Amino acid sequence: MRTYELKYGCNPQQKPAEIRAKSGELPFEILNGNPGYINFMDALNSWQLVKELKLMLKMPSAASFKHVSPAGAAIGVPLTDELKKAYHIDNLELSSIAAAYARARGADRMSSFGDWAALSDEVDESLALILKKEVSDGVIAPGYTPEALEILKKKKGGKYNIIKIDPLYEPSEVETRSVYGIEFAQKRNNLIPGFDNLKNIITDNKTLPDEAKMDMILAMITLKYTQSNSVCYVSNGQVIGCGAGQQSRIHCTRLAGDKADIWYLKQHPKVLSLDFIQGVGRPERDNAIDLFVRNDVTEYEANMLKDVLKTVPQRLSETERETWLKGLKNVVLGSDAFFPFRDNIDRAYKSGVKYITQPGGSTRDDIVIKACNEYDMVMVMTGQRLFHH
Q: Tell me: the pLDDT tens digits for 327-339?
């Protein structure tokens, strides 16, 4: 297959539309469904992310993509019982690749509604059973077991998009795109952030544990495939908050930090013990939990909880929130470009950030370093910007 005709482009009025190989055959097979323009954008970006994570960290990797940015990304670290319950999978036995996807989707379950899933390894039955229950548009992976394929082909009334990618495919060195009739060409960004990028520790505190190094790699590779400006928070092998596509870096840091806080609040015992009315679906549960933990909901939104909960307990007080969030520690913060002001560091500290990786190069680097020293943080400057547009 050299070309593939699409139903339409980004919008229904954008016809005709197709994708085509620059040379040779397209490096994938469509095993089920009829993927669209945006589906392929998500699929091909997310595949690169998980492929590079697996290459660098030597562990099964997964990403949950929406509108050409990751809602979450993770490696196959086993989940705690609390996370399993928070992710609605406490009744499942998880393989490593299934754990990776559960973590990736669990970073921001509301944003992952209708996601595109990407897996570095063969999709097995364990993972297919997770995808079966989630609202998802499609999946890309290097392979599928017969049991997994049978489960996934029944999803969405038999229309679930399933793509098998050739893991050995490598694109050409130069990539091109057209904007307003003008063709752009550039060398493909084939830099893969790795442990060699973590040697330049510029803070007074230079203690960088292996776990933090692993999370820094995860942060940098995730940022490489996130629409800029972008910042992400990472903890124990998974993204817990991603701020994408903001014009101001502090807005990225605040957005991602707020998501990280909500991720952690969802593990509060009061949240895990919420008793839902029988038959309430996962998306409705996710929406209700989000309303329950947030402190900025309206009276109308708070009353919506009565529609899905058997009884509505008292929502978390400010004191309960602040006390619980103090347990969020040793978080890694990654940024795709330098921090221009210390306000990013001040906000990051509020969400348990201990380790930071960023390119550096600002005229105010000294002010940012000083802020990190005040909080006893460890900061690495990689010298490698990771803009993605």
A: 999 999 999 999 9
Q: How confident is the model at residue 103 (pLDDT cuts 50, 70, 90)?
A: very high
pLDDT value for 137: 97
Catalogue the active-site residues.
Answer: 66-67, 229, 389
Q: Based on the number of CB atoms within 10 Å of its own CB, is 27 exposed (0-12), middle (13-18) or buried (19 or more)?
A: middle
**What does the DSSP assignment read for 69-114?**
EEEEEEE-PPPPHHHHHHTT-TT----HHHHHHHHHHHT-TTTTTT
Cα separation of 307 and 271, whole Å?
A: 16
Share of the chain above pLDDT 90, in %: 93
Quick one: which of 131, 203, 138 has its CA closest to 354?
203
CB atoms within 10 A of CB 125: 17
Residues 6+ apart with CB under 8 A from 132: 151, 152, 154, 155
Rounded Cα gap, residues 108 and 113, in angstroms? 9
pLDDT digits (tens, 9 = 90+) for 186-233: 999 999 999 999 999 999 999 999 999 999 999 999 999 999 999 999
Rg (CA), the chain: 21
**Vertex 302 angle, CA 300 and 304, to 5°:** 75
- Take residue 35 and report the two structure tokens written for it: 């993927």
Mean pLDDT of 238-257: 96
Residue 164 CB: number of other CB atoms within 10 A?
A: 20
Each residue of 267-304: pLDDT tens digit?
999 999 999 999 999 999 999 999 999 888 888 888 88
User: Which amino acid appears at position 334 of this protein?
Assistant: G
CA separation for the pair 265, 318 (Å, rounded): 12
**Looking at this protein, which amino acid is placed at residue 243?**
G
Establish how many alpha carbons lie within 13 A of residue 112's alpha carbon, considering only the half-sphere containing its beta carbon: 30
DSSP class of residue 388 equals -
CA distance 358 to 289: 33
288 Ramachandran zone, left/alpha/beta (phi>0; psi -120 to 50) = alpha
Q: In what helix (H) or strand (E) does residue 292 lie, and over which residues does it extend?
A: helix 282-293
Q: Which amino acid is at 379?
A: M
pTM of the model: 0.96
